Amino acid sequence: MANCKITGGIDLTCEDKRRLGGLNTRYWMYSPSDVSVITEGLTGYVEDLTFNTGTNTFTFDSPDNSCSAGWEAVSADGGNKFFNHTGAIKLISTTPADDLIIEELLVAKTTLIVETQNQEFLIYGINNGLKTTEGTQNSGAEDASDTTDSLTLTGGEKLKPKRFFVTDYATTLALLVGYETPAV
């Protein structure tokens, strides 16, 4: 039997205590099969994604304070352990073209890149992708009802969500924006 051990500790600084929850309203999605190379630096951050010719990321915008992403450790009966990645997103679809995207998300396998309120970028489903496991939309009964299309994306990965970082926040954001598929 394998003798699994930890190899270090985690320090806590005063800056670490000044963190916000929540995500930025913009995030990126792509098909994991569209990436040919994931470049990881010596520090463990993903520093670049190389997309197959003709493929890129797609951006999505959601209402403020409406999306979340996280992971849950799973211990299977057979003894294997992994991380279940989850993204809960809300979209406002107002056209048939928007409806088509929601329909595609229902059957697609995607990777999700989010920006936290702390200007950090996390990649969920980087290797195996995420699948839509829940989806709802309702008109509501009153003016203040939530009428968004709500989707939950989940998928198993060997590791926690990867951190995407180049040299600084602005450079990392510019690289992500550069991956975006231009609007037609």
Describe the structure concisely:
With 184 residues, the chain is mostly beta strands. The protein has helices spanning 14-17, 96-107, 169-179, and strands spanning 23-30, 35-40, 46-51, 58-61, 68-75, 81-91, 109-116, 121-124, 130-136, 149-157, 162-164.
What does this protein look like?
The chain has 184 residues and is mostly beta strands. The protein has three helices and eleven strands, in the order αββββββαβββββα. The strands form two sheets. Strands 1, 4, 5, 6, 7, 8, 9, 10 and 11 form a nine-stranded antiparallel β-sheet that branches. A hairpin with a 5-residue loop joins strand 5 and strand 6. The chain is globular.
Alpha-carbon distance between the termini? Answer: 55 Å
Please bin the fraction of helical residues: 10-25%
Proportion of strand residues: 35-45%
Radius of gyration: 18 Å
> Which overall shape is indicated by the principal axes computed on the Cα atoms?
globular
Give the total of beta strands. 11
Secondary structural class: mainly beta
Helix and strand pattern = HEEEEEEHEEEEEH
Low-pLDDT regions: none
Mean pLDDT: 93
**Major sheet characteristics:** 9 strands, antiparallel
Counting DSSP H or I runs of 4 or more residues, the number of helices is 3
